[in-house]
Amino acid sequence: AVVSTQSGYYGRDQPKCIDTMLAPYPYQHYQRWCSLTTHVTSTTVTRVQPQCKLIQAATPLLTNPDAAQDVARATSVEDKLDANFIQDDSQIMRFSKVDRKSATAGFSAAQLTQFYMDTTSSLNSLIEHSGSEEELLGELQVSFIVFLLGHVYSAFDQWKRLVDTICRAQQSLSERPNFYKAFIRTLHYHLKETPSDFFVDIVSRNNFLVTTLKLLFEGLREEEGVSGELRTRGDKFRAHLENYYTWDFSYCEDDDPVVVEMFEPG
């Protein structure tokens, strides 16, 4: 960001020059903030922010003009109460949609299996929608920041969907090496802001990130055409996570896909 004044321009190289115009900035966190926003641009913010340009932890509700009809169709007390209100769309984050169900319409069983094992087509669609690889990484950073500082849970859901899609896109590992090097760096700084047990499901006790990253590391190791530099960066990232968080990314037979034989009933 650049601030214009009568005497000149002040940017990131002179942050303390604007303290006289704003509240003092906590410079002890300045480098952390820069690490979390390396890919965020004004285009990123404009694209994903709510129409009202105000981010709130709880999306305000509006009175449903069709409440009477919706209540009549509701089958439970909870649904009847929910039918009285609707979300204010102008105050919802406008993240890219990660919609895999509609994308698989008309797929054969084999195509469906391949689609969910390798999310390259979903990743390509997300990059096309956002405008570039850099913009998608910017959206990943914005979703994390909005959850971290704004406590917007839908932003955390978006972050998880993006991470899952990127890690499962096996074919893209050889096609987008610079993107994945930047992704690993971005994820490294995100993890520095969260406790080690943050991604553990309180019901199943499974760690979402361990399961997802295991697929990324396996792809870096086994996929043909992956650059040596990217593979090395992935190995270092894996070693860091195993040492610092004691996460286990080792191979397990339970991780193998289940093959279901199809046959006609006799």
What does this structure look like?
The chain has 266 residues and is mainly α. The protein contains 13 helices and four strands. The chain has a two-stranded antiparallel ribbon. A two-stranded antiparallel sheet has the order 3-4. Helix 7 (120-130) crosses helix 8 (133-150), helix 9 (153-168) packs parallel to helix 12 and helix 11 (177-191) runs parallel beside helix 13 (228-244). It starts with a strand and ends in a 22-residue tail after the last helix. Residues 1-10 and 257-266 have low confidence and may be disordered.
State the shape. Answer: globular
Number of helices: 13
Percent of residues in beta strands: under 5%
Q: Tell me the number of strands.
A: 4
End-to-end gap: 70 Å
Biggest sheet details: 2 strands, antiparallel
**Poorly predicted parts:** 1-10, 257-266
- Into which percent range does the helicity of residues fall? 40-55%
Radius of gyration: 22 Å
The secondary-structure class comes to mainly alpha
List the helices and strands in order. Answer: EEHHEHHEHHHHHHHHH
Average of pLDDT: 81
Please write out the topology.
Blueprint (H helix, E strand, L loop, with lengths): L2 E3 L2 E3 L19 H7 L5 H7 L12 E3 L3 H7 L3 H6 L2 E3 L12 H4 L5 H9 L2 H11 L2 H18 L2 H16 L3 H4 L1 H15 L16 H15 L5 H17 L22
Antiparallel strand pairs: 1-2, 3-4
Keywords:
single chain, 266 residues, mainly alpha, two-stranded antiparallel ribbon, 13 helices, 51% helix, disordered N terminus, disordered C terminus
Give a brief description.
The protein is mainly α. It has helices at residues 30-36, 42-48, 67-73, 77-82, 100-103, 109-117, 120-130, 133-150, 153-168, 172-175, 177-191, 208-222, 228-244, and strands at residues 3-5, 8-10, 61-63, 85-87.
